[in-house]
């Protein structure tokens, strides 16, 4: 089947989210143009840094960790930009709040799904540690136990994580709300809308890559458009084409396991398994030692990189949670101020009467 059949065509039914600010100079003050340009230039540089130096580095755990580091940095920069805009909460459209809060919950769920997959992969790595332990032992039954652990690893690693399947569905819903409501008709609101759109597009792209890598399927992988008005558009289009193209290429070749470190483990397991099956008496000693060394090195690298990825997922989760709490806090303050003003107005009317 042609891979193009698997692509969704997002927001064809939406309008252009940048129609109000395609010409920044004519509608925004120099200060706002400077804030927006600075943010978009930083976003562009982060996207450029996501272009893998090596073609097979697209689906490595180290690339995924770097991608999440970039997302965390982008989220922090957004908070700084919002503070610099000094946009009053009561100028924000309620629909925007609803979309933001709903999407933040979706992203938190996605983070939980990714974290569960990292934990599952770490659990699988325990079987490999058992293999290495048994083969280091002098017990007569070491080969039988090692073979059993290798079989358990194969079964575990080939199983599906339902939470990852759920992540793909959540991301599809997220895409449908990328064209967010405007924050009234203010220049600050338009800057914030454009900024948040860029963040959301990059976030969906990276999370979509994670879902494809962890699920072993590229069927729900989406190519997102980037409006030419954005300074980051060209960099985004380039890195998305490179990463998504490589993922589809791997899957079109019939491969299910695509994460580089897992592929290395699988290669080591395939070499070791037939040697263990032969038994202690007939095994080729040098070949066995070499295979054990390869598996030990691959397993150690997997453990290290899974730990690094887990930390970045946790950091991203906390940043999302903090941003959500901060917005809810502003909403409560805004509500208190609004209620106080309403109370004062009612009191004045009563005095007049």
TrEMBL record:
Signal peptide: none
Keywords: Coiled coil
One biological process term in Gene Ontology: shoot system development
Domain of life: Eukaryota
Stored InterPro entries: BPS1_pln (IPR004320)
Coiled coil start-end: 285-312
Transmembrane segments: none
Protein name according to UniProt: BPS1-like protein
Organism listed in the record: Lithospermum erythrorhizon
Record lineage: Eukaryota, Viridiplantae, Streptophyta, Embryophyta, Tracheophyta
């Amino acid at each position: 089947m042609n891979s193009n059949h698997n692509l969704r065509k997002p927001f064809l039914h939406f309008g252009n989210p940048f129609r109000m600010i395609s010409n920044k100079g004519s509608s925004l003050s120099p200060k706002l143009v400077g804030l927006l340009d600075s943010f978009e230039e930083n976003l562009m540089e982060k996207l450029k840094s996501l272009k893998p130096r090596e073609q097979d580095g697209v689906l490595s755990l180290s690339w995924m960790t770097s991608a999440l580091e970039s997302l965390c940095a982008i989220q922090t920069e957004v908070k700084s930009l919002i503070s610099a805009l000094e946009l009053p909460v009561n100028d924000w459209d309620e629909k925007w709040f609803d979309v933001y809060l709903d999407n933040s919950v979706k992203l938190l769920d996605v983070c939980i799904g990714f974290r569960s997959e990292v934990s599952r992969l770490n659990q699988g790595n325990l079987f490999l540690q058992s293999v290495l332990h048994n083969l280091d032992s002098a017990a007569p039954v070491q080969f039988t136990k090692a073979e059993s652990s290798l079989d358990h690893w194969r079964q575990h690693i080939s199983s599906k994580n339902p939470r990852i399947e759920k992540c793909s569905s959540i991301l599809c819903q997220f895409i449908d709300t990328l064209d967010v409501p405007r924050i009234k008709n203010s220049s600050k609101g338009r800057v914030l809308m454009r900024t948040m759109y860029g963040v959301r597009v990059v976030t969906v792209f990276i999370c979509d890559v994670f879902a494809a890598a962890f699920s072993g399927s590229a069927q729900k992988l989406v190519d997102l458009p980037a409006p030419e008005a954005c300074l980051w558009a060209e960099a985004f289009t380039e890195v998305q084409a490179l990463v998504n193209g490589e993922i589809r290429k791997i899957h079109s070749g019939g491969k299910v396991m695509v994460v580089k470190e897992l592929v290395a483990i699988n290669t080591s397991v395939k070499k070791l398994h037939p040697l263990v099956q032969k038994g202690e008496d007939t095994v080729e000693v040098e070949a066995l030692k070499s295979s054990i060394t390869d598996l030990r090195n691959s397993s150690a690298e997997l453990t290290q990189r899974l730990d690094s990825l887990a930390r970045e997922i946790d950091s991203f989760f906390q940043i999302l949670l903090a941003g959500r709490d901060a917005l809810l806090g502003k909403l409560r303050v805004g509500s208190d101020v609004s209620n106080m003003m309403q109370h004062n107005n009612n009191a004045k009317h009563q005095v007049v009467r």
